[in-house]
Specification:
The structure is a homodimer.
Chain A (H helix, E strand, L loop, with lengths): L6 H9 L5 H13 L6 E4 L1 H16 L11 E5 L27 H8 L3 E6 L33 H8 L5 E6 L5 H7 L2 E4 L19 E6 L2 H12 L9 E5 L9 H16 L3 E5 L4 H6 L1 H19 L6 H8 L6 H22 L4 E5 L12 E2 L2 E2 H6 L4 H5 L3 E5 L10 E6 L4 H11 L2
Helix pairs in contact in A: 2-3, 5-6, 7-15, 10-11, 10-12
């Protein structure tokens, strides 16, 4: 991966005329065509090269659409891209027609000059944090192809980690941007709930779905955020909380060590560190499968009845357990979520952000349900899903890896801190 | 009702020293004690008089808490008032202990000097627009005691219409402030969703519940809104929509005539009138019983199982039909609501407000399920509930009564217009 330019470097190189959109997009398409991580679902090289040629001509005339002018963009195959089918990693949508229009965030990135080069691998219907259950088979981690990428934005994480693209869109309902970013050693931002439009993105859970993106570094994430949300001021965080209850502890000590190292970086930068207890967290986290299960079942039940065999068995089973849920169970879960979110907000008090591991395990072997007795799925969901329930912005950044092995993700969560300010803080931990 | 002061007159008279809080509160308590409309559940005369005495002394020292200093306030018995039980019109809560704290809006009004004089009649658990199903029996309309007040804020509407109090709190999940205001000939404001806190108010539907209030006139409503929400600027509406589909037509021609008269008033004031079609309205309105039913059942199911006989039969039946609702039906209803609210918003376009009848019938005989074949309940809910689904602010004001009979409510709904601006517009229709 040496020699691959970061997003800010790419943006600068194209603007300076040192790298033409055509050169860059051709390189990205060649890399994606040769990908060995099962990251790519649909490579759209011809259209991408035609757009790159047009963008190259525009630059020659002195025209620049925006900071992403000519930059290759990967899109999780849960987002609509006009002219390409959206298959959501599932044979259920094997015959999906080409989408008529771009998803709203795809359109925003295109307006700033980005070139969609490929639709990327997703865990089937985004309903899993591992990235190994999909019509196309498992995605493979660029750091060790026998291991998972994490999911559900599996192909986005793999493609950025492998250096095929510097920017990829993902979605995050409980983990799906941050966990694959963590397992693949890249940066993944889940903005606050509703901050980016979900239009044109296949829903998993309308109350937990967040649109986000993955980049190789924090500077690239900050550039992308400005493109998507408009630029603005940021606030410097001065108090950061660490969560001391057992719930928040990783199973892999390298992950806890990465948080300790991040805390030391923050302290060295003058940030005050505050210990926080969250007695309600188990009860809050427990509503997650009820809420997502009810909402996912409402979307999928007709297809499950009509074409059960088109689903991967694990996905079908995860959906079907919700078939007989009474409405009051879901209503109660929403109420508990609102009540305990308020309690969690009170418990964290006046800190600007929280720092914690992104996952409890690093990338696990493909197909493994547990590792030394630690179950994989909850270990890749448990530390991220609370912030889908609360809607607070959260970013996973590559942390220090004390054993020199697989990547270790550190998660920073904004508490009354917007995305731009959160990314500024993240830059002090992982530049 | 002659000689009763409006809220703005009361506020001015107390401030000017022309009427002492003690005199005014004693008068209100005497009126409430002699009430013949079944409006009063708990008269709190001793505490009210003690508070009035304290407020009278404060005035003598030149101290004034706010615009409601010394003004008697009635509170729907769905809101907590510290020291009094909240019985919600139901024998289920016959043994409820005194509330520990005031509901948030009660506290705000007290902070501005208001004196709670009584808890007022409510349709049982606020689950009905008629006001005749309650542990205490039916509330009676001051304009004709053989007829309903409308509900669920039945006692609030009756007490204001009878001149017992100039201000009463109510709640509105589908009709419950506006419909009783319309049937009793007073003003009722349902603010936009979430504009006023529901803390300390017994829930019916967490996604449709709105806190509101009733006054004798629009000026009193505007004064109260400033107290509750803080004063500010208003915008003058220049375009108002009339809804021309059959759905929006009243069954009683006097109600349609009242809207025509209001439209003429608006035109005379320079407002442009625009005809609007809303093809999605039947489908949107159809999700209301599903959403409220699921949420109400989640709240009540334990009590219905344990003490079914403590409910009024009509309430128990309305609750129990939701017992077997699957979660996906409710999830689908929420999705349909979001989708069709967006469609309705697009259909109404760039008008500032809508003008329509508040109800399809005027006050009906107590106990009547239909009037000349027109069903009562849907006639008192159908024109108001769409704006609980959308969350837009709406106010009912007394309209012109072309036959000289019972009051006719005209509803104004804000579309991108805040409550203050909506009340300003309402003042041009019904001063």
């Amino acid at each position: 991966m040496a020699g691959v330019l970061s997003l800010t470097e790419l943006s600068a190189a194209v603007t300076a005329g040192e790298l033409s959109p055509t050169e860059h997009v051709r390189d990205a398409c060649e890399r994606l065509a040769a990908d060995t991580h099962n990251a790519v679902i649909t490579l759209d090289a011809d259209r991408a090269l035609a757009q790159a040629a047009a963008l190259t001509e525009e630059l020659a005339r002195g025209e620049r659409r925006g900071p992403l002018h000519g930059v290759a963009l990967g899109v999780k195959d849960l987002f609509d891209v006009a002219g390409l089918p959206t298959r959501c990693g599932s044979d259920v949508l094997a015959d999906a027609p080409p989408a008529v229009a771009d998803a709203a965030v795809v359109a925003r990135l295109r307006a700033a000059g980005a070139v969609v080069v490929a639709k990327l691998h997703t865990h089937e219907f985004a309903y899993g944090p591992t990235g190994d259950v999909a019509a196309a088979g498992p995605a493979r981690n660029p750091h060790d192809p026998s291991r998972i990428t994490g999911g559900s934005s599996s192909g986005s994480a793999a493609a950025v980690a492998a250096g095929h693209v510097a920017l990829a869109l993902g979605s995050d309902t409980g983990a799906s941007v941050r966990t694959p970013a963590a397992l693949c050693g890249v940066v993944g931002l889940k903005p606050s709930y509703g901050a980016l439009p979900v239009d044109g993105v296949f829903p998993l859970s309308q109350t937990c779905d967040h649109v986000g993106f993955l980049t190789a570094d924090v500077a690239g994430a900050a550039l992308t955020w400005d493109v998507l949300a408009g630029s603005g001021e940021f606030r410097v965080a001065t108090r950061v909380g660490v969560l001391v209850d057992d719930f928040w502890r990783a199973a892999d000590p390298v992950l806890d060590a990465a948080v300790v190292a991040a805390v030391e970086e923050l302290r060295a930068g003058g940030v005050e560190i505050v210990e926080i207890r969250t007695p309600m967290i188990e009860e809050l986290a427990a509503v997650y499968p009820t809420i997502v299960g009810a909402e996912a079942w409402a979307t999928h039940r007709h297809w499950v009845a009509e074409r059960p065999g088109a689903y991967q068995p694990a996905t079908r089973e995860r959906l079907a357990v919700n078939a007989d849920m009474p409405a009051h169970v879901y209503v109660d879960a929403l109420r508990t979520r609102a009540r305990l979110t308020a309690e969690l907000r009170a418990a964290v008090g006046d800190v600007d952000a929280l720092v914690l591991p992104t996952t409890r395990l690093r990338a696990t072997p493909i197909g493994a349900d547990d590792v030394d007795g630690v179950p994989v799925r909850p270990s890749l969901l448990g530390l991220t899903l609370p912030f889908n329930l609360t809607g607070w912005p959260a970013v996973s950044v590559p942390g220090a890896v004390s054993d020199g092995g697989l990547p270790a993700g550190v998660q920073l969560v904004g508490v009354g801190l917007d995305e731009r300010s959160l990314l500024h803080l993240a830059g002090s931990v992982s530049p």
